[in-house]
Write a structure and sequence with these properties.
Layout (H helix, E strand, L loop, with lengths): L1 H25 L3 E7 L8 H15 L4 E6 L10 H7 L4 E4 L23 H10 L2 H10 L3 E9 L5 E3 L13 E3 L2 H9 L3 E3 L3 H10 L4 E2 L4 H7 L7 E4 L7 E8 H5 L3 H35 L3 E4 L2 H21 L1 H24 L2
Parallel strand pairs: 1-2, 1-3, 6-7, 6-8, 9-11
Antiparallel strand pairs: 3-10, 4-10, 5-8, 5-9
Helix pairs in contact: 2-10, 5-12, 6-11, 11-12
Length: 348
């Protein structure tokens, strides 16, 4: 009797296993091309995207294979939005902050001047309605985007000369990202958005006078210290920065539930990887930059106050111009007001 029971249980287990295998085999293989806005050699910004494709291959057992393409290999970095909408590119690794020209509200899902640190930011994204609002905006353009990376505070810029007052900013030509660029324009700075790999040549040629890009380990990788020696902190415009895995929405919808779950879970791990690695490598990078003659500066409170005042003006103006921006800004602001009680009580 025991032998018969054992054999019956074994047969059920084998059958269940076969069903699972067949279900997995029923998922059509995914073979996508991914356009990255960052070089695969670039610390964090590029490596997170490259690692994402390798992780998806592993977690799917080879069912999801996404080929990583360097910037410009498929389309120019800042043209991937349109390419995904049109379906000529399947997916991209980027940041929503690059698409301010398409939808102003998307910048709020990348980095917010004087905005939240990492924990608070992803709390809003995942549990405060942020992701749903982002999805609503992207759906207008036939894009599905998942938050798929996170890095901690950035520096706020490289300058050839020391900046002592806001008057020293006036007239500068500077590469600047996202909503922070609108703030700098109120300071009299002429800003332009330049993809990462094109910044050094622009700085070297003198077509820009200054630049911000990322955090010390990443900026070191790009060599800005060879031209500009004054490096400013804190990164008031990017206290934390979110990155994304963008997909053509029809292609996302065609995936199985299992495949979508594999992508969502892998992106969640990419958030963990980005934050942990970024926090771990900045101290060494700062020490190396100092050894190369870089002068590290911290903005005086007086300048930060003026920048923050300018940001409040920008936020009000954009809210008045754009209903989707206003909706996202009001959602984030309400969440931050509620969160502030916890931040004050819970953290040293």
């Amino acid at each position: 009797m025991k032998t018969k029971t054992f054999l019956t249980a074994a047969a059920i287990a084998i059958t269940a296993g076969a069903v699972n295998v067949n279900l997995h085999a029923a998922d059509d293989p995914v073979r996508w091309k991914l356009a990255s806005t960052y070089s695969s050699k670039l610390v964090q910004l590029g490596t997170l995207g490259k690692n994402l494709t390798e992780k998806l291959d592993r977690v799917s057992g080879g069912n999801i294979k996404i080929k990583f393409f360097e910037p410009h290999a498929l389309v120019p970095p800042l043209e991937v939005f349109d390419a995904i909408t049109e379906g000529s590119v399947d997916a991209a690794y980027s940041t929503p902050g690059y698409w301010f020209g398409k939808e102003k509200s998307l910048a709020l899902f990348a980095a917010v001047p004087f905005g939240p640190s990492a924990g608070e930011y992803i709390a809003w994204i995942y549990h405060g309605g942020g992701h749903e609002l982002m999805d609503k905006v992207y759906a207008k353009h036939g894009i599905k985007s998942l938050i798929c990376g996170l890095i901690a505070p950035e520096a706020s810029g490289w300058f050839r000369k020391e900046i002592k007052t806001v008057d020293d900013l006036r007239g500068l030509k500077m590469r600047f990202f996202g909503l922070g660029a609108k703030v700098m324009e109120k300071m009299g700075v002429s800003t332009q958005l330049i993809a990462g790999g094109d910044i050094y040549p622009a700085l070297e040629r003198g077509s820009i006078d200054a630049t911000e890009f990322s955090m010390p380990a990443i900026d070191l990788n790009l060599g800005f210290h060879q031209i500009a020696k004054h490096y400013y902190f804190p990164g008031w415009h990017q206290q934390s920065t979110l990155f994304e895995f963008m997909m053509n929405r029809d292609k996302w919808n065609a995936l199985s539930d299992t495949q979508r779950a594999q992508i969502e879970i892998t992106c969640g791990d990419s958030v963990r990887e980005g934050l942990a690695e970024g926090e771990a490598i900045q101290g060494r990078a700062l020490a190396e930059l100092k050894s190369k003659g870089v002068q590290i500066h911290r903005w005086p409170r007086s300048i930060l106050n003026e920048l923050e005042s300018a940001w409040r003006e920008v936020a009000a103006e954009l809210s008045a111009e754009d209903p989707l921006f206003r909706e996202a800004w009001e959602s984030l602001s309400a969440f931050r007001e509620e969160y502030a009680v916890w931040r004050e009580l819970g953290y040293l």
